[in-house]
Amino acid sequence: MTGIVLTGTGIALMAGLPAANRAISTHGWRTAYVIVGGVVIVVVVIAAQFLKRDPYKMGRVPYGYDGISTNASARRLTSVLSRGPLHKPGMVISLVYFCTYFIFYALLVHLVIYATGHGISSPQAIRIMAFLGGLASLVGR
Question: What domain range includes position 95?
Fold first, then answer.
């Protein structure tokens, strides 16, 4: 499910970059920045309406909660926290995702500047970036 959700990044790269480039060439970078920001705000507000609320309000309990709260579970939690954050599988996965996306986007952001420095036009460099970013995101997931 996460892979399907994250394909939105690839779709955004393939559709958003050419649209932002067109807005920059038509209206200038300041106005284009406001337009892109407005679109992002609208999309985020609409997407936030589909978020699930508190499980208790939906008549459910949180995942992993068995309904029993004892001192033993509090001691277990304390021992897990005292071992350090990297002993939790979720933290390791988060660290791996951070490193992967940091490298991916650091390269992707500088791709247009690199391409234009080698004589490729800006619109063509944007198309290359959108294709590579979209391809890596969609096929990779």
Answer: 2-55+85-140
